[in-house]
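> forwarded from #structure-qc
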């Protein structure tokens, strides 16, 4: 174990730290509690020339069975005090704060705009980077600015929402690799506390009835293709229940691949390839993964034949 002010641990298993409960170990791992800790961790990675991966709650990831060969920086609610700072309908939230916690607080304060994001299990930082969304809302609708730590310079910079290029499950931060240290939201006053609470509860109940939350998973595996739904196409191809090892295309919701017990990342990756290939061959739609792959995978993603040549 190497000690700076921030503790850098070695060989930390990542399967405990992802919603999939899958994946090998991080060669180095740390949980910064302050922005200074974060900067020190970045310095360590630079000095040792380590590839960097920024982990939130790990709810949109498939980590390779070989793990991650560099440094994993895990942003949790412990970062920068871990509380939301409210000013009427505006709120500043640390990047590692749970999105669900923010949604609940906003509803309890009668602030509207986030209630339909109830049940998305990641951090606020992860939600910004992915422009997480559900039903008629996404993060871009209420986000006003973010404070980032830039990579590789390590500068602390505030960006307005328009500078983040937030599109469907994507953002400029996914390309730059910058770190969301905090985010500011401007919420509304549409609806009473009871109405907002009822909507939040309704959304949580819908998720419970439609999603296979009883098994470890990463949410929707594939993005929504234009004019269709990934789950509908996968179901139409008869792939519900398809298994590889202990990974299964969920029988409850076809756009989920669940871990029935001891699934390996390679099993999930193989199912992803098979689903992509089958849906392409039968429906001529290329499903693009929403899940993010971390580390090395032997099996490629499917490439349609004409793009191969
Ligand atoms: C049951 C279930 C339901 C889900 N439902 C939805 C849904 O309805 N809508 C939806 O959009 N998603 C959904 N998801 C996917 C997931 O919860 C979201 O994408 C979430 O925003 C990811 O946040 P995270 O903290 O877990 O990020 P991680 O999975 O840890 O990381 C995702 C990406 O964000 C980056 N990242 C994380 N934190 C930061 C940060 N602070 N700064 C910079 N980069 C960062 C990571 O490096 C990685 O590239 C669901 C997942 C599950 C398991």
């Amino acid at each position: 174990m190497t000690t700076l002010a921030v503790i850098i641990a070695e060989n930390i298993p990542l399967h405990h730290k992802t919603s999939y409960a899958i994946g090998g170990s991080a060669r180095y791992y740390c949980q910064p509690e302050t922005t200074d800790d974060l900067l020190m961790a970045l310095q360590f990675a630079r000095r040792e020339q380590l590839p960097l991966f920024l982990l939130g709650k790990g709810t949109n990831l498939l980590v390779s069975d070989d793990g991650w060969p560099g440094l994993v920086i895990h942003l949790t609610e412990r970062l920068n005090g871990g509380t939301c700072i409210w000013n009427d309908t505006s709120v500043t939230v640390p990047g590692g704060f749970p999105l669900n916690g923010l949604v609940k607080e906003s509803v309890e304060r009668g602030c509207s705009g986030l209630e339909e994001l109830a049940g998305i299990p990641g951090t606020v930082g992860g939600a910004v980077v992915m422009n997480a969304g559900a039903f008629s809302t996404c993060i871009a609708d209420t986000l006003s600015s973010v404070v980032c730590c830039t990579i590789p310079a390590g500068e602390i910079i505030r960006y307005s929402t328009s500078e983040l290029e937030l599109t469907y499950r994507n953002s400029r931060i996914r390309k730059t690799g910058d770190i969301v240290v905090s985010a500011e939201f401007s919420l509304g006053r549409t609806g009473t506390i009871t109405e907002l609470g009822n909507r939040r509860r309704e959304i949580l109940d819908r998720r419970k009835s439609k999603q296979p939350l009883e098994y470890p998973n990463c949410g929707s595996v594939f993005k929504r293709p234009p004019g269709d739904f990934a789950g509908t196409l996968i179901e139409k191809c008869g792939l519900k229940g398809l298994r590889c090892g202990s990974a299964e295309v969920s029988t409850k919701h076809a756009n989920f691949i669940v871990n029935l017990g001891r699934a390996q990342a390679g099993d999930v990756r193989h199912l992803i390839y098979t689903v992509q290939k089958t849906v392409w061959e039968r429906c001529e739609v290329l499903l693009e993964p929403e899940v993010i792959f971390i580390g090395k995978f032997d099996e490629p993603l499917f490439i349609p034949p004409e793009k191969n040549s």
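QC bot note: The mean pLDDT is 95. The chain has three domains: 2-74, 81-208, 230-308.
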